[in-house]
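Fresh eyes needed here. Have a critical look at this protein's tokenised backbone.
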Amino acid sequence: EGQEVGVEKVLVTPDGVRLEKAGAQRWLVVNSPAEKVWPVILEFWTDQGFAVRSENAQLGVMETEWIDTEAIKKDETGNLGDRFDKMLDKLSGYADKKKFRTRIDRGNEANTTEIYMTHRSVSGAPDDGKNRVRTNMGEIETGYKLEGKTAVAEDVREAELDAELLRRLMVKLGVAEQKSKEIIAQGVTLKRAEVIKEVDGSATLKLNDPFDRAWRRVGLALDRVGFVIEDKDRSNGIFFV
């Protein structure tokens, strides 16, 4: 009963959630302000059995602890295994550890919130799963190793997992189970981006979106690549990573 009351405060109507997508990216648009959505997301991760390692409401970012997927599958208490059920199949055979990140931002319409789910995967200890390159500015990280899996296969599996998390969050927000599956299956496909090659050999990425949405999509892309956003200056369109 307590959850239903909380959900009622977040969603004015049961149809107050929709899915939008651009390429492999998917996100939810919720008809509720961010301050009401934020605590529901925090409770969602608790429901899934994951501890939230960090949360920054000002940046709109929440991140779980690293999760040992093999330990989850072997968990005899059922505390995590029961919550993961079919999602364990998506984890099987892939990286040993995962952590999940939720990013929220204000939507284009008044009093709406956009919710993005991403996750990072590594094999072995978190610090051992990254590619590193030495430059004249020192050693820099260039993303996570794929551990022999093809990039395409990995991306498809990872995108499916993020989509399943969005679907479960929809149910948490009050959408019926079957309805949530229909929303994920359909979604609203938006225009994608294109690379513009300049005469001097440089390239520009053109997003067919207004600044508000382009800003959020770039933030999500940085999450997926593995960058940590330490600060951002929205007025000047700059992310500090």
